[in-house]
Amino acid sequence: MSAIRILLVDDDADTRRLFGMALKALGEVVPASSGAEALEHLRREIFDLVVLDLHMPNVDGYAVLEALAEPSSVNKGTPVIVATADSTAEARAQALKRRSVYFLSKPVPLKVLSELVSETLAKSASRVSRSIKP
Length: 134
Description:
Number of strands: 5
Radius of gyration: 14 Å
Helix content: 40-55%
Number of helices: 5
Order of helices and strands: EHEHEHEHEH
């Protein structure tokens, strides 16, 4: 089985560093400093999970969520955990409407992030193994 790959998308370098350290025990963490960079990774590579900020310059997290929902996306169905400083009901509703599995308001305790990522990966793996027929 291949290694777990997590795309970590946030325009704040400190957040990428802290989240990356918290998640590296779970798999390979690929950082992206913008929505545009995330879209480039998502076009070329397959990920098991995306941790995504919503508010970034130029291409925001909502655009990334929309791209993940495209029928032609190689990462269609990849679980997304949104971690954002925007704790408004509208942001939460829009992220969940676009099929993020969790909506976390920053600051996010690293232990909570790690546990939710681990839980989401386990659920995702369970769904995949049930869908594979011998």
